[in-house]
Amino acid sequence: MIALTFIAADGTATSTDGVPGETLLRAGQRTGQPLEGTCGGQMACATCHVLIDPVFLARLHAPSAEEEDMLDLVPDATRFSRLACQIMLGEELDGLVARLP
Questions:
Q1: The model's pTM
Q2: In this predicted model, what pLDDT tens digit does every residue of 40-97 receive, in sequence order?
Q3: Do residues 83 and 46 touch, judged by C-beta distance below 8 A?
Q4: Distance of CA 14 to CAs 2, 48, 72, Å?
Q5: d(CA 15, CA 93)
Q6: Which of 23, 31, 38, 53 is most buried, taking the most CB atoms under 10 A from its CB?
Q7: Which residues 6+ apart lie within 8 Å of 65 measured at CB?
Q8: Residue 19 vs residues 1, 23, 53, 99: alpha-carbon distances, Å
Q9: Order of strands, edge to edge, in the sheet holding 81-83?
């Protein structure tokens, strides 16, 4: 299991576990986080936008050009922004902290 913490816009932290090979989007939805994922994780929307803790950002693969295009549509995107549907959980992400904007 991979320890995850989601921090809501109001600062409330929720700790949970993810399964290796699961996306951050699915782990968040499974635990009741307000991550829409309207497109079903097909990277055709940006409703699973999260802000990744800087400590973990370097552990993620670089966003694809398609993901960057989708993030360009997010008005409050920052350099820590990623789409949760594009983050595949693995042991290197144990302890990941994701903030929900």
A1: 0.93
A2: 888 888 999 999 999 999 999 999 999 999 999 999 999 999 999 999 999 999 999 9
A3: yes
A4: 14, 17, 28
A5: 14
A6: 23
A7: none
A8: 5, 8, 19, 19
A9: 13-18, 2-7, 96-99, 49-52, 81-83
